Fold this protein.
Amino acid sequence: MRLLTFNFLASMLLLACSGNTSQTASDKPTQKGKVSSTMLKIIPTVPSYIPGKSQQDSAKEFLINLYGKARIELASTDSIEFIDQGENFDSVSCNLCGRAIKMEDWQNAMDNAAQRQFADLSFVTPCCHKKTSLNDLTYHSAAGFAKFVITISDLQDDLSDKVIRDLQDILGTPLRKIWAHY
C-alpha cells in the first residue's frame, strides 16, 4: 500500500510539474515576482581564509571604482560554506583522474562534510581511490567552499585576468570565480 501511495503521489507531482504542452507561449500564465539573476561570486581557494578588514575595504573600493553600477557585497561567516553555482551546476569530476563522480557519491560526501560544518573536506574518490578535497574536485561549472565571498550582481562582463590578479594582490590570496544563476 505504501509503494502504491508513493507511486500515485510521484505521478501526480510529475503531472502537475509537466504543465499543459498544448499551450502556446502567449497562452501560458506568467509567474510574477520570479526574476532570474546571474551573479559572480569570488572566493579564496583556501576555504578557511578571511582577509583582514583593511584588505576587504580596499577590495570593495577597487571593485566599486571599476564596476560602480554593479551591486558589490563582501561577506564572511564563522564556518566554511559551500559556495554554489545555482542553476549552472552540471556535474562533478575527479581532479586527479578526470572521471565523472556519480551524484550519489558526491552528495554522500557533502552530507558527511556538512555534519562537520565543512571543517573537514577530505574525500576519497570512488574512481581512483585517492584522497583529495571536495574543494579541489572539478565542478562543471565552478563551485567551492569558503568563509569569505565577494558577490557582484548586475555585472555586464567577466572580470579580466588582470582584475583578478590585482584583487588577489589586494586580498593576499589566490581566488576562484564562480558564476551563479538563480
Strands lie at 38-44, 71-83, 91-93, 122-124, 131-133, 138-140, 144-153, 175-181. The chain has two domains: 36-89+143-182, 91-140. Residues 91-140 form one domain.
